[in-house]
Design a protein that fits this description.
The protein has about 280 residues and is an alpha+beta fold. The strands form two sheets. A four-stranded antiparallel sheet has the order 2-1-6-7. Strands 3-4-5 form a three-stranded antiparallel sheet.
């Protein structure tokens, strides 16, 4: 038996029996939304790793936290490497995902690669941060020293300094990175910021390469459950009860629940409405 039901974590309430065809129809649209949400969340992982690193830097500059330079330099490498790894994983994931969806030589994959090439060719920060992950993973921590200074408002500022020649002596950097054209010492943090902006643009390109028409269609179909069952308490779900799931030694039934991504559908619709207003 297939049905639409509400589930509040304890009580399962049947709302409407549905056919197998209807069940598969809703499952298909739910899976499309869930796949998109998982894709979109990958940039959130990078954001989170960056926020953790940024907060650690802010705490170091805050006199009330009493974080010493030795502790700061001992903890920063792991935070930086985690961020660099998640940075690269987003790029690798999108390329693999688009190839699986559309094929290696598809228009979508070519457009994605073109978007990464634009950022690579246009911004040293992107080239440097992209390659810095390999340097940090296979060689050593790239930072030579940290420096603090006061801005015009007497606020503390931090420079995380890397030494160009030290970087180049320990690792064979691709010529196209053009590290040799940089000054002898430079601050890593501005390049982290600019490379992240590059990554956001690439991520948005990848999102736009997905079949947004079908995604919006699925979001509308699933979000309609919130409209149809607006007074229902709990999550809306698809429920399966089959003969082989019946526990004959119990007064209760065993069942399988597929939660419908209603909230996610709402966020998707809001996102595309918001983006359309920007254009």
């Amino acid at each position: 038996m297939k049905s639409i039901a509400s589930f509040d974590g304890e009580t399962l309430t049947n709302l409407k029996d549905i056919s197998e065809v209807e069940f598969e129809y809703f499952i298909e649209h739910s899976e499309r939304i869930n796949i998109f949400v998982n894709d979109y969340k990958r940039i959130s992982i990078v954001k989170k790793d960056k926020e953790v690193m940024d907060k650690f830097i802010i705490d170091y500059l805050d006199d009330t936290t009493d974080i010493g330079t030795a502790f700061f330099l001992s903890e920063l490498p792991s935070l930086l490497l985690k961020y660099l790894a998640s940075f690269k994983s987003v790029l690798d994931h999108w390329e693999t995902h688009l190839k699986r969806l559309y094929g290696n030589d598809s228009k979508q994959v070519k457009e994605f690669k073109a978007s990464t090439a634009v950022e690579f060719d246009s911004y040293f920060s992107y080239r440097f941060v992209y390659e810095l992950r390999n340097f940090t993973l296979h060689c050593k921590f790239p930072i030579s020293k940290v420096q603090t200074k006061l801005d015009e408002n007497e606020n503390k500022l931090l420079s995380v300094v890397v030494d160009r020649d030290r970087l180049m002596s320990d690792y064979k950097w691709p010529k196209k990175v053009k590290l040799d054209e940089m000054e002898l010492e430079f601050d890593l943090l501005p390049h982290i910021e600019q490379a992240f902006e590059c990554l956001l643009r690439i991520h948005q390109t990848a999102i736009n390469l997905c079949d947004t028409k079908k995604l919006i269609e699925s979001a509308l179909i699933i979000y309609k459950f919130r409209v149809d069952y607006k007074d229902v308490v709990g999550d809306i779900a698809l429920v399966t009860i089959e003969d082989d799931l019946i526990n004959l030694n119990s007064d209760s039934l065993n069942f399988k629940i597929n939660n419908l991504p209603v909230k996610e559908s709402e966020k998707i619709l809001e996102m595309f409405v918001r983006d359309s207003k920007k254009q």
